[in-house]
Records
---
Amino acid sequence: MFSFDSGLLVPMMIFALPIVAVAGGITAGIVKTISRHRLMELAQRERIAAIERGIDPNKLPPMTAMMSDSGDAPTYMTFRQASIHRSRGLLIGGIITLSVGIGVSAMLYFVADSSTDSNAWATGLIPTFIGVALILSSFLYRRFAAEDGEGPAKG
């Protein structure tokens, strides 16, 4: 009744996967932007409500360092909190990338045929060095953020 040519499935999937990935990425960006805007709006409303109830604005936490353009940082935070957040993100990414590089090197060392692919393990050095660079940049970022004079970035 229905004829299905399985030879059409693979080419269709080859072109459908990137389209779905791009559409999903755009949708995720839109949702993130809308939710970040909503969080900023709620924080501002909360601050206005506190001021209307008679709380001194100087006693409220400052709404400094609006982070609307800096990746995955929360909506607003102080300079110190933002630098710690970014430093930890670099450190986590570096540790994960370093581990992947070591794992790829170990896998290729044990799986590769020693007569033809004796240096295949070296492929894992690329993510390993990227991970080391991310870890190093985490420590450098934290050090230079502390030297900027807006507060220590240790902690």
Note: Confidence is low (pLDDT under 50) at residues 65-69.
---
Amino acid sequence: MSQMIFVNLPVTDLERSKAFYESIGATNNPQFTDRNAAMMSFSTEVNVMLLTHARWADFTPKAIPDAKTNAQVLLALSRDSRGAVDAITAKAQAQGALIDPTPIQDSDWMYGRSFEDPDGHIWEVMWMDVAAASAAMADAVSA
């Protein structure tokens, strides 16, 4: 089995969150979805588990911070092009997401935008030309 990641997020409205993630390109996996949780997949390796607050409490007694006012993580998702970064950001905006809550990153070799999901979790979406980035970093080290 290849290595996978499952990002677990507490959500206040499971159906609203499922609809949001489907609108930006994630696919629901009904095998791991019920009235308390939904598995949303961006690829076979990248999955988001949306958990109601009651289900979240089954995993940890820690309080759930309000992601609209507190940030504990910034989630990042790569895309294949600058256009794909703008496309997913536009889809999120069409669903009412706050767009670019973090600074836009724009250079010759990297482009990134961001959005907040309905619960305030920040997703940074980025494209990178790895060869150009490596060259730029090597130049910086040489200088």
Note: Residues 82-94 form the longest helix (13 residues).
---
Amino acid sequence: MKRRGIREQLFKLLFRVEFNTPEQMPEQTKLYFDSGDLTVTEQDQAYLESRLADIMDKLPQIDEQLSNKIEGWKLTRVGKVELALLRIAVYEILYDDEVPTGVAISEAVELSKKYGPDNAASFVNGVLAKFA
């Protein structure tokens, strides 16, 4: 699976964080991969699970960084789609040296166009531009 596809699957997994407790996420992850809607190699699945766990471990730091950049907003007001995409992008910007900042921003914006409401792309771009 290419990096864009991995990022999209990671978004779908991370989106579930908002609706489940951390204790429920291992079961949610298992259900996601066992649903039959997705065909991934064992290597891709292991990578996705590892990346999800790493992001979840760093959620307090990621959310703190986001809170500092989003002026006049609380994270609870941010749409669930936008929040999941922002978290992935901030993770990539701050903790993944293999992903250039511009790529992290561009990919988050593209996914927000696909999954978010009409104004999601400009919101995501505006927030992430503060990290650039």
Note: The chain has seven helices and no strands.
